[in-house]
Amino acid sequence: MREIAWHENPDWRNLEAVDIGDLVFLKFSDGFTYIVKLIVVSVNENEVSANVEALFDFSTEMPLTNGEVLKLENKKLTFKKKYIQKVKKA
After folding, report:
1. How far is Cα 7 from Cα 26, in angstroms, rounded to an integer?
2. What region does 65 belong to: left with phi over 0, alpha with psi -120 to 50, or beta?
3. 86 beta partners
4. Contact between residue 81 and residue 48 where contact means Cβ atoms under 8 Å apart
């Protein structure tokens, strides 16, 4: 799988502060657009590490059931806070 080009959220600074255990949602495209749901496992000043819980099609919000993108499931990812689209507090 290629390197992921996450969508930056121009309003990320307006989101609630991220804590361990929170759910965060990221967005990326590779011809199709996806939403990735993750559980936060660590937070520092600029980056977050989180485990991928599920992947969804952006337009239908349906869970993905096949495709190379599913290789992300159960992976730990580290990313900059500016890519977080939404925070759901634990």
Report:
1. 7
2. alpha
3. 25
4. yes
Q: Residue 13: how many CA atoms within 13 Å on its side-chain side?
A: 1
* Cβ within 8 Å of residue 46, ≥6 positions away: 80, 81
| Residue 49 tokens, joined | 């590490």
Classify residue 13 as left (phi > 0), alpha (psi -120 to 50) or beta: alpha
- Kindly state the tokens that stand for 43: 């937070």
- pLDDT digit string, tens, across residues 54-67: 999 999 999 998 88
pLDDT above 60 (res 84): yes
